[in-house]
Design goal:
The structure holds two protein chains of two kinds. Chain A has a three-stranded antiparallel sheet with strand order 3-4-11. In chain A, α13 packs across α14. The N terminus and C terminus of chain A are likely disordered. Chain A is globular. By secondary structure, chain A is mainly α. Chain B is an alpha/beta fold. Chain B has an eight-stranded mixed sheet, sandwiched between helices. A two-stranded antiparallel ribbon of chain B has the order 6-7. Chain B is globular, with a radius of gyration of 22 Å. The two termini of chain B are about 25 Å apart. The chains are: A mainly alpha, B alpha/beta. The interface between A and B is large, with 77 and 80 residues.
């Protein structure tokens, strides 16, 4: 019995302190958190190439896997480097992209000048291309030394290969695999408006803003605003934020954030047994993610609705293959997506009941109330569930052949009599049991092993009888909106908020609530906050006099 | 002995080749074809030593894998029977464990970290490099690939090879992709009659100098932690430069090197028949890569630490069986779990056999290998960290004795990692942290 009390106490303590823990990264930096250096994600890399060179330039190859830290890949990006095999891949990808850019098919549109002789170097033409392209890749103007160095690469390579374009391609490839492109660096400078404090320099601000709102590098207008110093004024910053939030590109940013928060990267390695779930395949997995993202962006950006409604809305979008798994009729042009509303009384309500959530948080061959309950706690409510102890006998949990325990509920109940396990299962299973109407592949079912399913459950005192009831409980849980605020701030910062930023995050949470939980308003408030750009004292050398910018030479 | 002219460096060579002329004399003899003592015998008599790891999840059933007594092995226990043909070229280590020192047991994590990094982390984030990378930094710096990693169950993150806590060498998951990486257009056949360096390779190598030159300005604004992290990037860059340098030089002939047939795309996943097929393809490719001097360090992850291997049509994974399957009252163990272990050990035997099947003079490729196995648990049913099974294969060019069972009494698993580093030439006398720290070499196997 002591064990039970101890486990419950640990669980309760864990859940209680969790939100605080998420705000308690100790960095000892007055006035702001530490600067972080983040590796571009695969999606960000692709987006930069698409923005710069257009969609006809293909990015092929395998990127180095990202890692998740404190719930987000965006925070793992501040921890990773590039391994030997990873750099091999970046090298291949860079050369492939560069070869396409300088190819006969694209050079006339993507290279802003023509060399005097295509078989020889042309420093002027190479410099023009590399200066303009480098500005977009490095997210700031190149220094004169940087530009001179790359022009020399293009020159040497053109001599060696007897071809201007091949040489230019080599120089471009070296920019695409440079750490100055692959990593986002935050440069600190004294905050002229707050004595003794530091802020990001204007170009770092531009990147912070752009990757947060668009999941992309700064566009020319934002870079120009940085160059003019506009981002260092509140009105100039707000103008850019408003422009970016009004742009359709904010959809890309919001999708990227929720893709990260919901852990959709795990779909890449999700396995479902094809004999048990013949309908579940890679197309279903892909469309399931798309369904959830469409549901979210429609609720938050199109309808400008309450964030909490993503947990209860019956309005969604389906593709034909998803309609087949859901077992609903879909009137849609062949192969296309169409809006669909689940009828009242249907257990499908909100993103938690959608295939993406229930399939992702299941075993390959069967559902898991425990995994699903854990995901609701950790992913949607930002509450950390303790890791399971060793030396536990799980024999009864999921012995599906045991005639005494036909359903997961019965097996878990038996397992929860084990004192060591009871505490943690008590905070997970009653949530996940509400989703038992959906099998591991996401399809609806009424029974397990011939026994009618009981889908009743509880979330922190809020009792429900089915998935729609669970959806309402999550909707009404104040931890849900608080969680998304913390996640959004952490996502943008690339780290957990520091102690000094606790008040700021609390104010974001309060404003989010007061404003009716409108997500675009949250984005705006974060992006216009001085705290979002405040950093600790700079690292050694950061405040050296800047090198002469290449643009100063070029625009003479 | 062929003299090594250290001054005849890549820059001199590259300068001489940029015009595209074939260079057949004056090249430095590649260190990758020398043994680590510097004895240049590139005629197949003393080829360089190889280190490798082979990882699987969930350990083995206690009482069913340990040899009957310590010392020279007369026979293997039942769960190691698939390896019986290699009894005299392997060692078995029993009775070693991971010490938690009051830290929480990161299930499926703490054990393997202790074994391969010498440190049990406090949380679920590793913070030390794995033993293979420490060894690769000594023996793998002169080969085309410092190391090669493969993950047979479809997830590159299953790799246990890490240069630091967050810098994990991802494993190749597709045999077809590994084939292209090793034996694709950038492969130089050491036995080819003609050799003419590709001017494009030389140009690329030269161009990478510009990226290396980014280091100074990029690093100066970073804090200490980020500096260390980004150092890994520049180490990787050096590796890439080295690859190109090697491509620009005529490699020494290697009699045992043959180029395998092209490997086509095949299904990837956790279903065990798929995993086995991919593992067998990987085994062949890695053996050929070693025989062709492409690397001296190879790391195989047969499964993830939790072992999500499963049988087609089954609702439970190997891991789930470990928790849920009752111990058979008559047999005294979990029969389905034993079935999985047999499949895994059979695959390990296939890997070893593949290495042993490549003849190099009167010896085999396996003879110059020292392959260390690793796993995450001792007794899977309890997810315990006691008596974790460990094996080695090959004598590492005569540096290890074989055919021995070392029966320890509750000593740290890091002893094997320390010993392997020492025999591979890493200058280390003590390794690990807290109770995993050890300076106790496993002298029973050191030749």
């Amino acid at each position: 019995m002591l064990h039970v009390k101890k486990a419950l106490a640990v669980a309760a303590l864990t859940l209680t302190v969790c939100s605080t823990a998420l705000l308690a990264a100790d960095d000892n930096k007055a006035g702001g958190g530490p600067e972080v250096t983040r590796r571009l994600s695969q999606e960000q890399y692709r987006q930069v190439v698409a923005d710069l060179f257009g969609p006809s330039i293909k990015v092929g190859g395998r990127f180095e896997p990202d890692i998740r830290r404190d719930g987000l890949l965006a925070m793992g990006a501040s921890q990773v480097s590039v391994t030997a095999s990873g750099l091999e891949e970046y090298d291949k990808i860079a050369r492939n992209v560069a070869a396409q850019v300088v190819s006969e098919a694209h050079r006339d549109t993507l290279i802003p000048c023509t060399p005097a002789n295509a078989k020889q170097p042309d420093d002027a033409c190479a410099g023009k291309f590399l200066s303009e392209t480098g500005r977009m890749l490095y997210r700031r103007p190149l220094t004169q030394d940087e530009l001179t160095g790359r022009i020399k690469v293009a020159n040497d390579a053109a001599v060696g290969l007897k071809d201007f374009y091949s040489g230019l391609g080599i120089a471009l490839a070296t920019m695409l695999e440079s750490p100055k492109f692959l990593f986002r660096q935050e440069i600190a400078e004294p905050d002229t408006e707050h004595s003794g404090q530091y802020r990001m320099d204007a170009y770092s601000k531009a990147s912070q803003l752009s990757f947060f709102l668009w999941n992309a590098a700064p566009d020319p207008e934002l870079l120009a605003a940085a160059e003019k110093g506009d981002l260092n004024t509140q009105s100039g910053l707000a103008k850019q934020v408003d422009r970016m939030i009004a742009s359709p590109r904010v959809q890309g940013g919001v999708r990227a954030f929720f893709t990260d928060m919901l852990g959709f990267d795990e779909f890449e390695t999700l396995a479902k047994d094809s004999m048990i779930f013949p309908k579940f395949n890679t197309k279903v997995a892909k469309d399931a993610q798309e369904q959830t993202l469409r549901t979210i962006t429609n609720t938050l950006l199109v309808e400008k609705g309450d964030y909490r409604d993503i947990f209860t809305t019956r309005e969604t979008f389906l593709s034909p293959v998803l309609a087949s798994v859901y077992g609903v009729p879909l009137v849609a042009p062949a192969g296309n997506w169409a809006p669909y509303t689940f009828p009242d009384g249907d257990p499908r309500a909100g993103i938690v009941s959608q295939i993406a959530f229930v399939a992702l948080h299941s075993h390959p061959g069967r559902s898991s109330p425990t995994l699903r309950g854990k995901a609701v706690r950790e992913v949607l409510l930002c509450q950390k569930v303790p890791t399971p102890p060793a030396n536990v006998n799980f024999t009864l949990v999921q012995d599906t052949k045991n005639p005494q325990y036909k359903t997961a509920r019965a097996r878990l109940h038996a397992h929860a009599t084990d004192a060591t396990c009871a505490g943690c299962h008590k905070i997970m299973d009653p949530i996940g049991l509400g989703l038992e109407a959906f099998d591991s592949g996401g399809s609806l079912r009424a029974a397990e092993n011939g026994e009618t399913l009981d889908t009743s459950g509880e979330l922190d005192g809020m009792k429900f009888t089915d998935a729609a009831g669970l959806a309402k409980a999550v909707h009404d849980d104040p931890a849900a909106p608080s969680c998304v605020v913390t996640r959004a701030a952490s996502y943008g910062l690339g780290r957990l908020p520091a102690k000094d930023e606790t008040d700021w995050v609390k104010s974001l949470q309060a404003s989010f609530k007061d404003g009716g939980y409108r997500f675009p308003a949250l984005l705006r408030q974060i992006a216009t906050s001085p705290e979002f750009y405040r950093v600790g004292p700079p690292q050694m050398g950061a405040l050296d006099a800047p090198s002469k910018l290449a643009s100063e030479e070029i625009h003479k | 002995m062929i003299p090594i002219n250290r001054n005849m460096n890549r820059r001199r060579v590259l300068r001489g080749m940029l015009g595209g002329a074939a260079v057949t004399v004056g090249l430095p003899f590649l260190d990758c074809f020398l043994d680590t003592n510097g004895v240049a015998l590139a005629d197949g008599q003393a080829l360089p030593v190889v280190y490798g790891t082979w990882f699987w999840g969930l350990g083995l059933n206690p009482g069913r894998w340990e040899p009957a007594k310590p010392g020279k092995m007369e026979a293997l226990n039942v769960e190691l029977q698939p390896l019986a043909a290699h009894k005299d070229k392997m060692n078995v280590f029993s009775g070693m464990k991971a010490f938690l020192d009051g830290k929480p047991n990161g299930v499926h994590f703490s054990g393997v970290q202790g074994m391969l990094t010498g440190t049990v982390p406090r949380g679920m984030t590793a913070d030390k490099p794995s033993v293979d990378t420490l060894i690769a930094d000594v023996i793998g710096t002169r080969t085309r690939f410092r190391s090669l990693e493969v993950c047979c169950a479809g997830n590159p993150s299953h790799s246990q090879s890490r240069r630091s806590g967050a810098v994990v060498n991802p494993g190749e998951i597709s045999p077809a992709a590994l084939y292209t990486r090793i034996f694709g257009p950038e492969f130089t056949d050491p036995n080819a009659a003609d050799f003419k360096p590709d001017p494009a390779v030389l140009v690329r190598r030269s161009a990478l100098t510009a990226v290396a030159d980014d280091r100074q300005t990029f690093m100066k604004t970073l804090g200490a932690a980020d500096k260390a992290r980004l150092d890994e990037y520049f180490t990787s860059l050096r590796g890439l430069e080295q690859q190109l340098e090697l491509q620009a030089q005529k490699p020494a002939p290697l009699a045992a090197c043959t180029v395998p047939g092209k490997v086509e795309e095949s299904p990837i996943g956790t279903e065990i028949e798929i995993v086995k097929k991919n593992h067998m393809l990987f085994a062949g490719l890695l053996a050929h890569a070693l025989a062709c001097g492409q690397t001296q360090v190879v790391n195989v992850a047969f499964s993830d630490a939790t072992s999500s291997l499963r049988r087609a049509g089954g609702t439970q994974t190997h891991h789930e069986f470990s928790h849920e399957e009752p111990v058979d009252a008559v047999m005294g163990y979990q029969p389905t779990l034993a079935w999985f272990f047999n499949e895994i050990m059979t695959q390990l035997a296939f890997y070893v056999t593949t290495l042993d099947s490549i003849k190099e003079g009167d010896r085999t490729l396996l003879d110059r290998c020292a392959i260390q196995t690793a796993t995450d648990l001792g007794y899977a049913k309890l997810h315990g960290l006691e008596n974790m099974p460990m094996l080695t294969f090959g004598s590492g060019n005569g540096r290890l004795k074989t055919g021995i069972h070392v029966a320890a009494q509750g000593e740290p698993t890091s002893r094997l990692g320390l010993t392997m580093q020492q025999v591979m030439g890493v200058p280390v006398s003590s390794w690990g942290t807290d109770s995993m720290q050890t300076s106790k070499t496993i002298t029973e196997i050191v030749a």
